[in-house]
Amino acid sequence: LDQQPRYVLPQSRALPAAFPPDVSMFAGATITDTAFFREPGLESFLMIYLVDDSDEDVLTYYRQAFQDRGWLVQDTAAFGVEGRIDFRDDLADIQGDVVAEPLAADPSYTRVQLQVQINPARQPVDAGESPSGQTPSDGASPGASPGASPGETP
């Protein structure tokens, strides 16, 4: 059997400057596409990135990171092979969804679509703090940087 060469990741794009610091990117993410949209009372961000972890690893990470912040997280109906969670804080000042599925061109990668909508007047919690202002004691911080391991603080 001829084995096809592994998909070659493009160079990662930067996060938009206004991307909320209390929503982390999964460690090792290669950002392939970004979008930003502003309208009165709402700012929307879309990040599409690739990782070489499983879709379940990605969803588990975000589920835990958002729950650690005290946000509501719900598994929602998926289409085909994708997994999806929706999230929001108590005031709905920040909400969105995470969709993860194997990359069609190379299923050893997971394609992640992270959509975030925020009220621009909201006060974000610092990336390394829980909503109560305390630093998480278990080392799991939803403020992980792209170079950190999932749950590792930058």
Overall description:
By secondary structure, this protein is mainly β. It is built from one helix and six strands, in the order E-E-H-E-E-E-E. Strand 4 and strand 5 form a beta hairpin. Strands 1-2-6-5-4-3 form a six-stranded antiparallel β-sheet, with helices on one face. It is globular and about 50 Å long. The C terminus is likely disordered.
Which bin fits the share of residues in helices? under 10%
β-sheet strand percentage:
25-35%
Question: What kind of sheet is the major sheet?
Answer: 6 strands, antiparallel
Class derived from helix and strand content = mainly beta
Let me know the average pLDDT: 81
Unreliable parts:
127-154
What is the H/E string? Answer: EEHEEEE
Radius of gyration: 16 Å
How many DSSP helices?
A: 1
The strand line-up of the biggest sheet is 1-2-6-5-4-3
TL;DR of this structure?
The chain is mostly beta strands and 154 residues long.
